[in-house]
């Protein structure tokens, strides 16, 4: 199987994480299948000067959020798994409950049921008990909660370096080795 990864971008702040993941995956030769929520498209306009079409060009395949018949909604479509970067609390809640209302949460649900790797870069603070319960539920189902927390041991000098390192660590969870500064390097 070719290296194929689903990338979900939800409406949480930090849309740059999804963009950077797509860039790094493209550079690593990974076939990406992108699904963006409508809220992600709004967040993109608020947080960046990047256009939706520019983000879509970074992916090998794009899906509409309401395309429930898409390839990524079926377990027979083989992938390495799915990265949701950033992951909103709404998306986390849908995934944790199994009550999916969009292709993003449906694709994540499929990844879990097929026992593939699901990494959610949950982007919210502070957290209440309901958020924590949803994170625990996803973890118990086999998903990984990986909030975008900067690593200062890498001695980042720019925001881009912090973003790159954070995405590099998330991609490590898929056994994809991208150039990041590691502990004791």
Task: Please name the defining characteristics of this protein.
alpha/beta, Rossmann fold, 41% helix, 7 helices, globular
Would you mind describing this structure in some detail?
There is one protein chain. By secondary structure, the protein is α/β, with parallel strands linked by helices. It has one domain (4-172): Flavin prenyltransferase-like (Rossmann fold, 3-Layer(aba) Sandwich). Helix content is 41%, strand content 16%. It has a six-stranded parallel beta sheet with strand order 3-2-1-4-5-6. Helix 6 (129-140) links the parallel strand 5 (117-122) and strand 6. Helix 4 (89-97) packs across helix 5 (103-113) and helix 4 packs across helix 6 (129-140). It is globular. The termini are far apart.
Annotated CATH homologous superfamily: Flavin prenyltransferase-like
Kindly name the structural category.
alpha/beta
CATH fold category name? Rossmann fold
Give the N-to-C terminal Cα separation: 32 Å
Task: Count up the helices.
Answer: 7
- Beta-strand residue percentage: 15-25%
Q: Provide the CATH top-level class.
A: Alpha Beta
Beta strands, count:
6
Write a brief structural summary.
Helices cover 41% and strands 16% of the residues. By secondary structure, the protein is of the alpha/beta class. The longest helix is centred in the last third of the chain and has 14 residues, at 159-172.
